Every structure is written in structure tokens, then in C-alpha cells.
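Subject: sequence -> C-alpha cells, single chain

Hey, anyone have a minute? Need the predicted structure for the following. Not urgent.
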Amino acid sequence: MTQAIDSDVDSLPAWEQNMHAACKNLAFPLNVYAYALILEEGQVDALHYGLFQRDDMSIRQAQQHSTDLILLRLPASPSRILEIGVGLGATFSLLTQQGHQVHGITPDSAQIACLQARFGQQVAVSCQRLEDFEAAAESFDWLLFQESAQYINPLVIFNQALGLLPYGGSILIVDEFALRRTEAHQEGLHLLADILTLADRLGFELVEHIDLSSMAAPTLEHLLRMTHAHRQRLQRDLGLEAGVLAQLDESNRHYRKKYAEGIFGYALLHFRKKTMPKWRVDLLGEQRAAEMLSLFEQVFGHSMSPQLWRWKYGRANSQALGIWRDGRLVAHYGGMSRAILLFGEARTAVQIGDVMVDPAERGVLTRKGPFFLMAATFQERYIGYGKVFLTAYGFPNERAMRVAERLGLYTGVGSVIEIEWKPAGKMPHCLTRLQPIDDWHEIWQTSAIDALWHQMAMELQDAIVGVRDQSYLRARYLDHPEHAYQLVLVVSRFGTGLRGLMVLRHDPHETEIMDLIAPLHAMPLMVSHARRIAGIHGKNRLFLRIPKNFAARFTATGGVQTGEEIPIPTPAWSHAPAAEMLHNHWWLTGGDMDFR
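Reply:
Had a minute. Here:
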């Protein structure tokens, strides 16, 4: 069959020629898999994994077996089915032939072109994401995901299902999952245990769970064999460089290893809508920000501007969850993305902030209450090994910390204290001078600031510290929508050497050192200059917030500890770096607090 394709594609029926052309236009790597299957089998019906019952099965036969498992679980009588991610339409077509009323959605216009080439222009498929899909309540009896659930936030899946399905309606998922987490870097697959927990939390009962891992794993061997056997045709006809296919093969070998180690797996999950939850946890994006701002004013007694909300939660990877009761927002849990160095290794953490619960709902401080539901869901979805954020930190008050510890959500890993000094006189230093920064217009300033940060980072390789390069400083301080900060370079009087950078916030009667970027041995010099500036501004005191484990460096300069300690929490609900590993290692200042 390969020879026939090589020699005379034009002899194929027109619809099949159109189908082959449409498959070439699929996004990478689907275009590779589709074309490899055409070259291997003479046609392509599906792009999902095959389920191999026997060693001698072809990949096309194994793919059909996967689809047969789905068809066997659907009722014989016609049902209303929403297929999310239609692929090349094989399952969609079979469901339609069996008399079901099927609507398909996919965000990939190239997939729709494939369906139209195969089944005609009137096929009932729309180009949209599940996140954006709208239909009348209880419009479908089944939601079907055949290797599409892994690309969709589970909160979207189950919340959409709550509206689209009647009681007794079903979700059927056949897909890859992570069975356990071992790596610090983000992995794309959802953790199976978290999916099962979330389904129960949002009112769905598990009807059936079949582990198909051993049957699915041979697919990877077939993909590796096909890309090797047809490498020249794939490169030539799809216009690919040799290195692109090599990277794809490496990815498939990586997945093969994960399957062999039991880290990745493949499963069929059947859920049934059993109840509508009292408290409904869901994503809170900008389209719902007004609800959050209203709750914020109700809980804290002052307002937050839309600009400040966007500064906190509009940045890449920042996330927020809400709890709704009877359609009204009653709780909020926010997370702001933060690049960190964890013992010298680049990682991504999240600062937890704006945690609030409507006073009328606060009495439920159990594992069934709104605070637990959103905090546990946030950790399950976003925090831990293989997830968006490796770890988290925040600045809860003592009461909130006690509640979170009792519920098993947080564990303490240290505390932040406040150190204060009396402002000093205005006499300038002999060897160093100050140079304020309003914006970096000169290239030397950006490179010099990054050099300062590099020196500081090298000395904090035994600590956990948020990245403080010039890009971060600009976003954190110069671009803040409401607060004004003073950024000051400490420069040698003789020569151009930079000694450090400090960020100050001046309130009516006091000055706070928000940040210090300098080698650790230069911290006393930074404090000395900060005391001078506080004196020049006529303030009553200067203070710095710093974790207790670093306090000695600053009390040695004459500073005195004042005020209450603020606990530093770390996640305890999800599989993340253990508290023992992080204990007394954070470097945090007022600049790490979103409310300062």
C-alpha cells in the first residue's frame, strides 16, 4: 500500500485526496502521526492511542478497539452526546451511524477540515474550546473525551458538566494520566488521584475505572517504528527538519520510560452526575473579577481596584479559585506566580494571597467547608511535583495558620519578623553615594542590577529566594498600579562600582525597606544608607521584614526586633517538597508581600 501512495496519490478518490491533504495541515505532531499512518496503513481513521489485545494487532486495529470500548458503554437508545475533541471523526461518525444525536467541538480548525473532507461540510462540529462552549442547561446526556481531557483544566470539565448534564448524566474519559509525580518540572498529564478527588468534590460518582496502561503502552513502540521507517517521506512531504523528528522520537521514548516505570498510565473513567454541590469551586478569571472585588470590600472593609487585580492575577501562570453558593461568590483563594531559586535551582513557586471567606460562611471550618475546598483544590491542581508551581508561600495571620494546619493544608517552615532602626543623620558617606532610579533608561543600569542579583543569588544557594533581577524589579515596583516606591543604587564615589540596590516605601511616619539586592556582606552598608534616607524624609522609624533565620545579619547593625512574627507556610496537602527540606531556608522581605 505504501508503494501505491508513493506512486499515484492522484488515483485515490477525491475525498481521500482531500483527507490526506487536510491531515498534512494538522498541528505538529499530529500531522506527523496522521501522515505516518497513511504511509503505514494506506489510510488514517484516528490519532489516539491504540489498545493492543494481541502482539500481532496493527495500530489501526488497536485504535478501533479503543473506540469499541467507548461504544459498548453507551446506551442502545439514541442519546445526546457532546464529543470534546473530535480528532479525525472516526468515533463521531460511528456514534452518528448508531442514531445518537452528536455534536463535536474542537479548537483546531485543521481537524474540522479533516472531518469536512471525510463527511461533508454539514458535519455538526464547531471550532471552539470547552471553556467557551455554551448550551442550554441539561442539553446532553453524555460528555465524551477521547484523549482530549488531558488538555483541559479538570475544573472546566466538571463545572461544564454540572451545567450541561442532567442528574444521572455521564462523563466518559479515555485518556493518559500521571499515576504519580517524581519530577520538579511541570508535566502535562493530570494526576489521576486528583481527578478522582475533584470529581467527588463536585458531585460526580465514579461508575467505572479500567486501567488500560499495559494495552496502550505498545502504541509508543509503533510510533517510534513508523517515524523511523518513513523518516525521509515525513521530512520531505511535511517540510520538517531532521532534528524535529529526532525530538519527537525522544519525547516518545521518554513517555515509554514513564509507562514502564508506572509513572504514566492510561485509563477509562466513567462518572455520573449524582448531586449539585452546596459549594461549587471554579476558576476565577478576569471576566469574574468584579465578583472578587465586591467580596474583597465586604470582607476586608476597603476596596481593591481592577488595575491592582490585573497586576496581581493578570500575569502569566497566576491563578485564582472561587467558591460559589447559589450563584454568589462566597470565598476566594489567589495565587501569584513567582520565579525562585530553590537551593540554586530555578523553579516556579506561587504566593498565596487574598484568601477570604464570606463572614456568613466562616462557621464551616471543616474539610467540607469552603476554605478547605478551595485550598485543597488549588494544591491538587497547581502545587507540587510535576505541576505549575513546585511549592508555595504566603503570609497568613496566626488564626488562619492554625486553621490550615488543623485541616492538614499547611505546615509552618519558619516565620517573618520585623526589625526596626532609628533614622540616622543626613551626613553623606565618604566612600559611597546614592543614585535614585525612576526608570532604567541606560543599558548599564539593567546589566549592573542583574550583576548585583547574580552576586546575591550565588551567596544564597543554601536558601530559597525569589528572583530579583531587573525584569522582576520593574514589574514589581515601577509598574505597580498604586504604590510608589523609591529605588536607590548605592554607588562607589571613586569609580563606577555598584555596591547594592535598595527599594524603600515611605509611609506618613515610617520608611520600610522593601527589598535589598546586594552581596550579603554589603547589607550593613545598605541599612546605613536606608537610615540616612529615612532621616532625610523626617520619618520616625525605619523597618525591614525578614525571616527569623536571617535576622542576625540585621540585628548586628543595631536593629531591634519588634511586633508579632508572621508564620511562613508550605503546602502539606499535595505532594510537594517536604517541610523539613524548606524549614528556615526562605529569604523573604516586604517586597514578597503583595499587600505592601
